[in-house]
Inverse folding.
């Protein structure tokens, strides 16, 4: 991934650049200290992601984003903000900003967010390939890719696409939809774990190992949503997934932990069946609408 950093604080720019380099998240191809200064440079080098400060003298972050979009820039924006002003956050969302980084800058938060952005970037490329396949035939293989596309999109919303366990969850949804068409309630989870463990490539894994992978990825989803909710609890992704896929008290406890400790959230107890039941309901609903 290729990044461009815009921030009037030299120390913040240096810290972000160090995190990107040391965590092997990509390469910083440019930086600027103001919104006005960054415009021509960004349009010239076309970075994948622009990390831009919300409040800067002269042209602020939102105004700079608006001008770049008007000039045809298609890259992703991550807003850097020291304040949590709901109106300004809402305006940033309207301009296409999907992720925020708090100031003072936290290494763990930056690494987590940039990993999610990279996964989202990879998803877009994967979806393009899938759409091309969908346009070529209406075979059973194409239908299977359609289910995979739906699940990938949902996992991407929660920031867990590409995590260990994501393939297991996709396989579960394919088994439920293709082999148990019409089922309303999930079968015993143990049966699903054993079905996944029996798939080619998983012969060295026990059903217990499958369960642990799925538990870990669901915990990651809880933490991602809690981070999102701690920034803006009116975010539509948070509003939809937090109460639907999880016990909301667990999400709320994680939000409090993040806000108080400004660090990694504490370990939480997750309800695997609730998550998978909600995912299955959303997947089958979208699949049947196609």
């Amino acid at each position: 991934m290729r990044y461009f950093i815009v921030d009037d604080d030299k120390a913040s720019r240096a810290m972000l650049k160090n995190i990107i380099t040391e965590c092997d998240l990509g390469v910083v191809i440019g930086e600027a200290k103001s919104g006005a200064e960054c415009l021509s440079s960004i349009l010239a080098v076309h970075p994948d992601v622009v990390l831009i400060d919300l409040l800067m003298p002269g042209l602020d972050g939102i105004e700079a984003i608006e001008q770049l979009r008007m000039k045809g820039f298609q890259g992703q924006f991550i807003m850097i903000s020291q304040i949590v002003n709901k109106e300004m956050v809402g305006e940033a969302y309207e301009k296409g900003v999907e992720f925020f980084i708090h100031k003072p800058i936290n290494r763990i938060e930056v690494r987590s967010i940039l990993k999610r952005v990279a996964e989202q970037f990879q998803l877009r490329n994967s979806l393009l390939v899938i759409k091309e396949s969908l346009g070529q035939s209406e075979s059973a293989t194409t239908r299977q890719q359609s289910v995979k596309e739906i699940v990938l999109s949902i996992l991407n919303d929660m920031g867990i696409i590409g995590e260990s366990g994501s393939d297991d969850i996709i396989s579960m949804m394919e088994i439920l939809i293709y082999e148990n068409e019409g089922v309303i309630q999930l079968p015993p989870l143990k049966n699903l774990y054993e079905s996944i463990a029996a798939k080619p490539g998983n012969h060295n894994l026990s059903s217990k190992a499958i369960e642990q992978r799925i538990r870990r990825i669901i915990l990651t989803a809880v933490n991602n949503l809690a981070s999102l909710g701690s920034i803006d609890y009116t975010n539509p992704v948070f509003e939809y997934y937090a109460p639907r896929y999880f016990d909301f008290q667990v999400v709320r406890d994680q939000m409090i932990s993040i806000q108080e400790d400004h660090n990694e959230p504490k370990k939480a107890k997750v309800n695997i069946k609730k998550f998978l039941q909600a995912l299955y309901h959303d997947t089958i609903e979208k699949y049947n609408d196609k």
